[in-house]
Amino acid sequence: VAHILLVDDNIALAENLAEILLDAxxxxxxxxxxxxALSCFHEMMYDAAILDYKMPGFDGVALYTQxxxxxxxxxxxxxxxxxxxxxxxxxxxxxIQGVLTKPIDISAFFDTLSTLLQTA
Amino acid sequence: MEHLFDEIxxxxxxxxxxxxxxxxxxxxxxxxxxxxxxxxxxxxxxHSGAKxxxxxxxxxxxxxxxxxxxxxxxxxxxxWGYEYYERRARIGRRHVEIQLPQQYMFTAVNVIRGxxxxxxxxxxxxxxxxxxxxxxxxxxxxxxIMLHTYREGYLSKMKxxxxxxxxxxxxxxxxxxxxxxxxxxxxxxxxxxxRLPPDxxxxxxxxxxxxxxxHANRVITDLLDMxxxxxxxxxxxxxxxxxxxxxxxxxxxKKSRLKIEIQESLPTLWADRNQVLQxxxxxxxxxxxxxxxxxxxxxxxxxxxxxxxxxxxxxxxDSVSRARLFEPLFTTKSRGIGLxxxxxxxxxxxxxxxxILSQGPLPGAAFLLVLLxxxxxxxxxxxxx
Lengths: 120, 385
Fold this sequence. Notes:
The structure holds 2 protein chains of 2 kinds. Chain A is of the alpha/beta class.
């Protein structure tokens, strides 16, 4: 059982992902604002993070770099409606392990998740 | 407004005397038509640049020769009215469509001019120089018409580009944003499938939802690919393996309708694998969507290029659609936004190739995708199969 941080301003999608994760035996905490997620974040809280790319305030990659300052071991994937090559490149540079395009291919989602959890 | 043909005639001073001279010359030129046309195409085939317009080899040359013989006959017999102009313009538009560089129009007309002057100069009766003038007048009018079709082509392309830039960015941001609701629909369908009892009726509807989400997402992806220039990741591509795995991914009902003919020991391509797959998928999907029961894919090499022909047994493309087929936002289907062919051509060109409307063994539409082989400095030619 893993505990996952879910940050997406699309509330309906975040809830669905949480439900899909729960089916797979994982628990999660949902945040709709990156600032909120950051302020409630502590080291060792989560086994992995699933972050939306485009959000109010700062994007998923910026959020990840901030979270990593509090927990350098944190692994993350980006799910994005805007996943283009630039986004992919920046994410890789920042050490993000996976970038998935919305709509999300569920089997690719679990593949990426298991990589995150294995390397955690 | 004065018709363009009248305006050209008036400027150049082409009148009934010229018409009478050309009519008289018709009989004298007739015996030379075959040799003029043969020389015309010999020159094209000997020229490395010009011969790129010939994409289908000998049978195409034979067809084109027939067209040129007719062109020459009409040149001398007229009548030189609006219908004449329209027929000439149609040929010009065809040149624009296959993207024949303009310089070859002039060089090719020069070949014809040389032959005709030689024939007329040697005539015993009649005034040689006046005959030469009449021929020159009409040949230059022919060039003016062809140039005009290029202008038409450029203007429509410019308008099209303006339209794309303005609406493209807007459409791209809408398309991006639509992926959010789509991802909710998709993941909810996924959860529904798990939560609901295994009832085939319910399953059927969930499949429909998933299928439509995929369709919507494809439209979005095509649109975004059209608006932005995706970087090319060229690599050695085994086209035979690529085509085979594509075929394997198709549902059974489509597999049986798709026939693939591949030349033995094909060399490899140098291209972006995903983009090649995207083009082939677009062409084959188009053919299937038009309800054609048979689709043929032929893959073979012609000199240093790979030819991939996608041909169906439908009604083909009518002459009105033909000219606009590769324009973005042009579609003959009741569904779809008309990006498939425009995008496919753009991707082909970005990979150093081309995509044109062609002819094939089946009577319906035939699209010819021409791509580059792996060159020796990239480790080619590799042989597959």
